[in-house]
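Structure (tokenized):
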């Protein structure tokens, strides 16, 4: 039997876009027409008046406006509870305006030169040193990027992520994918001491040195603090090329710094366009006129929902490539809001898939849920639905109405938006016009501003994560890291005191 041929399917336009990026074809980001077509829209119609407990009225939100506007002013002026170790953590606000062309050109040139030499690029990091890069990469590239030919990838190397967990099988499987390939690695850690990243780096570095000796040093990039930390020191000793995580920008706000830009440039993603998206939303979100500022409205809606008893935010998308952006939001919001018993649990979701699983809970479970849709308006590709000779599934009507898979996929959001609202779940939609770096940049800046405002409304600092530090300390103690002996003893004592219940 011969293998399957794709008949009548045309070119995959995601691959075409990758190839164009490889040839440095750029979107006209400065043109008013492009800007008009690529404007993220926030639709909050369904946030109001959902029946049942915890319904939100427009007046609930109107009441919040003075506080939201005040919070916005404080944020812009660098006032309030925004410090981490005496540093105001709001550097991400002006970063889009401060990034220079020469800085972007240098990153693109390093990535371009190194990318040509290697078969695979491995990004090592966790949390904010991982999620934004993967989210942007996945949003803009082919689902099976690494299985495509180099030409189909637009000349980019394969891209892998490690250090985001401690699963030995996952690690080993990824190593198998790297076998026989020329690789470069970028180890990303602001603190330079995160265990998952450090362990992954040890293993990869050893392998690289065993294979290529001192030549490995040229293939190792380090993204870390400008002056301090273990990675900075090691980079100094070995002469690794370094990139910087600025002091005043925390991990989950760092996708527009070197943390994100180097890996994205390696995948041929247009980082200038990415910056332009951030700049555009920065302008839009600079006004105090509440109903004209989507970041402020977004923050107020979520806060009103939380006050009305909504403790879970389902962030659902109809686009597989945007699922990772929902995962980025799963970090940004809970890590920033989850203090002092506050905050909403954010759960990323892919529709239709999840409509056939926890969709039942969303429709009819406890009414403590709100929903945010990441709705991709226009996919790269169009998939026609063919006529069937027997029409046993009764779907020929779709063909008669000229509906393709794209048209049905719209309803995967519009249907639940209506039904869930009727079932008592307030919901809002972020309409993302197309898959491009410009739109991703807008989305990120809007969400970063929204979560910062949320911190003011909740009354605590959204730029620190003491809870994450607590798990790190417990893990260090349990693996008996030197310096954590006392903590280890305390934990072991408490664990022994507890009655073991194992069935
Ligand atoms: O948002 C954050 O600050 C965290 O999620 C960090 O990014 C994460 O803990 C990784 O830290 P580091 O970059 O220091 O390895």
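Design, position by position:
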């Amino acid at each position: 039997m011969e293998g399957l041929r794709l008949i009548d399917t045309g070119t995959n336009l995601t691959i075409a876009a990758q190839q164009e990026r490889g040839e440095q074809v750029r979107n006209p980001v400065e043109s008013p027409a492009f800007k008009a077509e690529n404007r993220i829209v926030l639709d909050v119609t369904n946030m109001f008046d959902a029946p049942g407990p915890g319904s939100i009225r427009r007046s609930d939100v109107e009441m919040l406006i003075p506080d939201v506007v005040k919070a916005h002013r404080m944020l812009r002026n660098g006032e309030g509870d925004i410090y981490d170790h005496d540093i105001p953590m709001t550097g991400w606000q002006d970063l889009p305006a401060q990034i220079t062309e020469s800085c972007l050109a240098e990153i693109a040139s390093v990535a371009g030169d190194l990318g040509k030499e290697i078969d695979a690029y491995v990004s090592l990091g966790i949390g904010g040193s991982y999620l934004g890069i993967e989210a942007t990469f996945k949003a803009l590239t082919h689902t099976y990027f690494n299985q495509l030919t180099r030409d189909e990838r637009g000349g980019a190397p394969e891209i892998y992520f490690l250090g985001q967990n401690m699963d030995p099988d996952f690690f080993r499987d990824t190593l198998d994918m790297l076998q026989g390939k020329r690789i470069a690695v970028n180890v990303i850690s602001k603190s330079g001491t995160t265990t998952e990243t450090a362990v992954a780096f040890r293993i990869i570095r050893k392998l690289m040195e065993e294979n290529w000796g001192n030549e490995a040093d040229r293939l190792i990039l380090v993204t870390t603090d400008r002056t301090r930390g273990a990675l900075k020191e090691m980079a100094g000793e070995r002469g690794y090329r370094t990139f910087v995580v600025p002091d005043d920008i925390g991990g989950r706000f760092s996708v527009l710094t070197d943390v994100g830009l180097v890996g994205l440039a390696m995948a041929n993603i247009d980082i200038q366009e990415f910056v332009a998206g951030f700049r555009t939303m920065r302008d839009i979100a600079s006004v105090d006129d509440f109903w004209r500022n989507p970041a402020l409205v977004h923050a107020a809606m979520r806060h009103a929902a939380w006050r009305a008893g909504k403790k879970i935010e389902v962030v659902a998308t109809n686009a597989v490539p945007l699922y990772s952006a929902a995962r980025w939001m799963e970090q940004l919001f809970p890590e920033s809001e989850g203090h002092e018993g506050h905050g909403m649990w954010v759960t990323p979701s892919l529709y239709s898939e999840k409509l056939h699983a926890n969709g039942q809970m969303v429709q009819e479970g406890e009414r403590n849920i709100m929903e945010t849709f990441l709705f991709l308006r226009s996919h790269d590709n169009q998939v026609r639905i063919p006529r069937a000779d027997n029409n046993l599934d009764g779907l020929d009507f779709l063909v008669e109405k000229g509906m393709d898979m794209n048209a049905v996929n719209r309803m995967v959001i519009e249907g639940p938006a209506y039904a869930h609202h009727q079932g008592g779940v307030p919901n809002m939609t972020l309409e993302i016009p197309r898959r491009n770096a410009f739109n991703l940049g807008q989305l990120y800046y809007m969400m970063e501003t929204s979560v910062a405002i949320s911190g003011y409304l909740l009354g605590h600092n959204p730029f620190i994560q003491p809870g994450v530090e607590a798990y790190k300390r417990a893990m260090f103690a349990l693996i008996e890291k030197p310096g954590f002996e006392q903590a280890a003893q305390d934990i072991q004592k408490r664990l022994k005191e507890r009655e073991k219940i194992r069935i």
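Reviewer-requested clarification: The longest strand covers residues 369-376. The pocket of 5-phosphoarabinonic acid is lined by residues 126-129, 189-191, 194, 197, 250-252, 335, 465, 468 (CB under 6 Å).
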